[in-house]
Amino acid sequence: MLRPLLLELAGSTRLRDWVTTNGAMRGWARRFVPGEDLAVAIEAAKACNLAGMSASLDHLGENVHTRDEAQKACASYLAVLDAITAAHLEANISLKLTQLGLDLGEEFCAGQLRRITRHAAELHNFVRVDMEGSAYTERTLRIVEHARTETDVVGTVIQSCLFRSEQDVRDLLGQGCRIRLVKGAYREPSHIAFPRKRDVDANYVQLMKILLPSGIYHALATHDPQMIEATTRFAAERQIAKDKFEFQMLYGIRTDLQSSLVREGYRVRVYIPFGSEWFPYFMRRLAERPANLLFFAKNLFR
Ligand code: FDA
Fold first, then answer.
1. SS3 of the chain
2. Which of 22-36, 200-214, 262-276 has the lowest mean pLDDT?
């Protein structure tokens, strides 16, 4: 019951303005977002590298309203790629197409993405296009496919909550595309998405079993020990080496699990978001775990 409410509130500008100007809340959000500046994100990525993990940097932002904002987001990602190279980090970038102006036109947005993927190709880096709500799925897949006609340093994300995902996985594998598999963080209607968590989980395992034997380097992004256990068991049964795929987790979540996977010899990448536009990201993290909400409420009334 809480999840749909929190996901709805993620779009509230009044709540955003209130939460993001509250000192206690800003401090607490640091658990999920290390800071607002690139320098802080670079330091967080360095710490991950030292702990044996790679990183993916996300300059937070989504649903921009003007071309100017989209172009600024594009420029900031070019700078992130340069900063990763300058710091010799084992890191790539993750971005959202609505931050690059998807709401302002598909062609415009595709052009912004191509500027970034070209620069990533020059620097031998990689761009992950995050998957947003289902209103954007079709366009995201189209834009990624188009970008991939020029370079293969771009991949995307598939959400196991959607009925369509198995077909999307097969189409993307046909293109040789690297996929990050997630459960899905958005509120979706029951005619297109599994309403029950156990079905989302079962589909996650089913899709993982299609991805791993494909010979393409994919990412299993989850903090769920059951999904992780299903993946490591399947990989062992099929004799798929530990360096042929990676686990991904969000900054600040299940750091114990991140470390234990590294100790077991698995590849782990930490998704590090930064920037001032952290409110919707933060609300999605609250929606995933009601226990976080209790903590949030305590801080609010302190
Ligand atoms: P699940 O929600 O079942 O949680 C399993 C366990 O993980 C919980 O019991 C708890 O221990 C821990 N946990 C999970 N979330 C937590 C939280 N917020 N705080 C504390 N503990 C938590 N989604 C999307 O739609 N598009 C995208 O592009 C991405 N990208 C992405 C990248 C990466 C690297 C990750 C890890 C996740 C995403 N997601 C995403 C989010 C994803 O869809 C999903 O909402 C979250 O990962 C939560 O689902 P889990 O698989 O972790 O399992």
1. CHHHHHHHHCCCHHHHHHHHCCHHHHHHHCCCCCCCCHHHHHHHHHHHHHCCCEEEEEECCCCCCCHHHHHHHHHHHHHHHHHHHHCCCCEEEEECHHHHCHHHCHHHHHHHHHHHHHHHHHCCCCEEECCCCHHHHHHHHHHHHHHCCCCCCEEEEEECCECCHHHHHHHHHHCCCCEEEECCCCCCCCCCECCCHHHHHHHHHHHHHHHHHHCCCEEEECCCHHHHHHHHHHHHHCCCCHHHEEEEEECCCCHHHHHHHHHCCCCEEEEEEECCCCHHHHHHHHHHCHHHHHHHHHHHCC
2. 22-36
142-188 confidence digits (pLDDT tens): 999 999 999 999 999 999 999 999 999 999 999 999 999 999 999 99
Q: Both ends of the chain: CA-CA distance in Å? A: 25
Nearest CA to ligand 1 atom 43: 184
The verdict on the CB of residue 131 being under 6 Å from ligand 1 is: yes
Domain ranges within the chain, ordered by starting residue: 33-277
Tokens of residue 52, six digits: 């044996």
Residue 205 CA to its chain's centroid (Å): 19
Q: Which atom belonging to ligand 1 lies closest to the Cα atom of 248?
A: 34
- What is the pLDDT of the chain when averaged over all its residues? 93
Q: What is the CATH number of domain 33-277?
A: 3.20.20.220
Q: What is the torsional sign of CA 194, 197, 199, 205?
A: positive
pTM of the model: 0.94
130 lines ligand 1 (CB under 6 A): yes
Strand partners, 159: 182
Active site residues: 130, 180
Instruction: Report in angstroms the alpha-carbon separations of 195 from 1, 158, 272.
Output: 12, 17, 29
Amino acid at 285: R
